[in-house]
Amino acid sequence: MSERLKTAFQRARDEGRSALVPFVTIGYPSVEATLEIVPELEAAGADVIELGVPFSDPLAEGPTIQKSSQHALDQGVSSETAMATVRRLREAGVTVPLVFMGYYNPILSYGLERYCRDAADAGADGLIVPDIPSEENAELKGFAESSGLGLIPLIAITSPGQRVRDACAAASGFIYCVGVLGVTGVGETAFDRVHGLVDEVRRHTQLPVGVGFGIRTEDDVRKVSGFADAAIVGSALVDVIGAGPEETSAERAGAFVRELAAGTRAS
Question: Coil, strand or helix: which one is 211?
């Protein structure tokens, strides 16, 4: 696990709260807006920030993130853009852990070793790759580990026990538990079922465990904070970013994440 990720989760634990992990799509509504939004999220209380790398076929995403991804692709955003964006964020003083959320095909096209090396050199801390199962990620895992990147798996509430064990064994950074039956942004979080999944995951790993998909409100964050180490918020934030002029997108995003951060202490 990268030191930044380890420190972020430990700090949240020391403060008696869950970590807050918001998601933004690189290049939505523009790269320059992303460079303004991310520091605002950090200042508002984000502990880790997921940076979505746009892809034409994001199979885990619902309409909101699909739309933001296509918008970014139309602006010419690429894997190279993602690397440059992280580098610029670090140069601007962002210290919060940054994790790429992207799909395997662009990584394969870029070159697995080169992608991991360039991501780490730019200042990224981990990778989430929804469309590569743990049974097939050994090569990517090796390059990620040698570059100091966490490789963060998604585990569904429908995952059988062996798959949960395999995913935990191959993971680094943290574990991402999916709280809905479906894609991002379209379902209600099945809190009871995902709570059970988190409990099962904890039997197989000492890594922090986060819950995402369907987390939209401060109350949702508070519920997750009662049993998980992190609440992950994507589509709801992307909706807020797109709900007004680009010039004020960072201000809206920061205000929304500040509201969510108030829920990180379980009642």
Answer: strand
pLDDT digit string, tens, across residues 55-84: 988 776 778 899 999 999 999 999 999 999
- All residues at 6 or more sequence positions from 215 whose CB lies less than 8 Å from its CB, including other chains: 179, 189, 221, 224, 231, 232, 233, 236
Residue 103 contacts residue 88 (beta carbons within 8 Å): no
In the β-sheet with 49-52, what is the strand arrangement from edge to edge?
150-152, 126-128, 98-101, 49-52, 19-25, 230-233, 209-212, 175-178, 154-156
Q: According to CATH, what is the number of the domain 3-261? A: 3.20.20.70
CA 241 to chain CA mean position, Å: 16
The alpha helices in 47-155, defined as continuous H runs, are: 63-74, 79-91, 104-110, 112-122, 138-146
Give the model's pLDDT for residue 186: 46
